[in-house]
Amino acid sequence: MVSLIFFGGVDSMKKVGIVGAGLGGLVTAALLAKRGNQVVVMERSPILGGRSHVVSKNGFTISYGAHAVLAPKQEPLRSIVRELELPMEYRKASLSKFKLFMEGKVISSPLGFGALTSPAISGFFNHMLCLKQFYKMVKQAPAFPQTMSVGQWIRENVRNPEIAKVLSAYAALSVYDGALDLYSMNRFVELTAREYEKNEPLSYMGYDVLLGELQKAITKNGGGILFGKPVSDLIVEADHVKGVICAGERYEFDEVVLNVPPKELGKLLSYPSLADEFGWYVNQTAHYVFVYDLMLSKRLRGDIGNLLDLDGGFYINDYGLNNPSSVPAGGQLINGLKFLTEQEQLDDSHAKESQTAFETLLHKVYPGWEKYVINKRIINRAMVNGIARRTNAKLLPLQSRAVRGLYLVGDSTEGSGALGMPCYDSAKKVADLLS
Ligand SMILES: Cc1cc2nc3c(=O)[nH]c(=O)nc-3n(C[C@H](O)[C@H](O)[C@H](O)COP(=O)(O)OP(=O)(O)OC[C@H]3O[C@@H](n4cnc5c(N)ncnc54)[C@H](O)[C@@H]3O)c2cc1C
Fold first, then answer.
1. DSSP states of 209-234
2. Could you tell me if the CB of 410 is within 6 A of ligand 1?
3. Is the minimum distance from the CB of 246 to ligand 1 under 6 angstroms?
């Protein structure tokens, strides 16, 4: 039998139900709670964070997905951090530790660490000596056709194949979703006008700390997080959302925010106009990356922070350098990542091959690694929705047109930026819409 749960509050408060405790849901909940609304987050699993959840094992702390909080000093994160008074710890990645792997050799990168984040794309270009000329040209021609992307401009204008190769690799890395094709030349010109110094791109605050802080911000302001509570349906009457069915119970809300991946969203579309509105979005191919984590009892090499294999398409990150609190003294945590091709997205046949190729690279860069392995973790198909941007997949709108009071947040939405950024951006925009 379905019972009825009503979250009462003072009249000015909105009662907001948030489905999913991923980054997008938690940030939305924290902002809305801080602004005086009554929020309840319903999470189907027993843990926080969704694709940013954090696992602790053998004294190591590994984040399933996110390991660097991107562009913490840029909007929208800057104002979110301020509003929630989050104790962020900023750290700059060392440029000298960013390397490239080409033709069997590790070489120093001529590029800046700004390449890691597409919001820092201005820094990316400012730091590239090899592209000084490009930058000059851009400055001289401040208006481009509306449809011309940075990627297209490079393909058509950068004739040196080495530079073009490095650029394309960085574009893929920066980050996972074809950032250069996302940015129009006009937007790029606008971005390059800003000073790089004001745009520190990374903060290595552990995601476990961030998740904990968001949880505190929600509960401190009267909100609640319910764990192990899957939402199985939305209650919609006369095209207005009224609540959700969660773990067999009926919860009433004024507004509902969905922070669920498209596949899950598909299960919540029993109301006909929602099925019409969102059916198209949920049947798209999911996009994955191959992830390989190695926990070593001994540090083998300290001069590499991030390594991009230009020939193999792998990206290696030394967690120990980027996020020292994740590794016990003397140990090393290496995280490897590969962007799967279209075919690899569809099946798992590449798994063995990817692992072998990865280990071959490790032998070259971290000789002796296998003697010190405490634990290996292979996540064959970690989902990164952001890749969808590269494939012109359709991203979810922040607000339903068919049903009033229904909002969407997370990295499958039209929130701007790459990797974790759409989560923050969509959360901020939806919280603003609701306030
Ligand atoms: C390998 C990898 C590396 C990455 N690196 C970075 C990085 O360095 N920096 C960065 O910022 N980002 C990074 N990301 C991206 C980041 O992890 C994701 O963008 C982010 O975690 C997605 O969050 P989300 O808000 O979309 O929600 P999700 O994480 O998808 O969370 C959705 C939540 O909803 C819950 N849920 C689903 N259905 C229901 C239901 N019916 N009822 C109740 N609950 C439900 C799920 O259990 C989950 O907790 C990385 C991702 C990967 C995979």
1. HHHHHHHHHHHHTT-EEESS--EEEE
2. yes
3. no
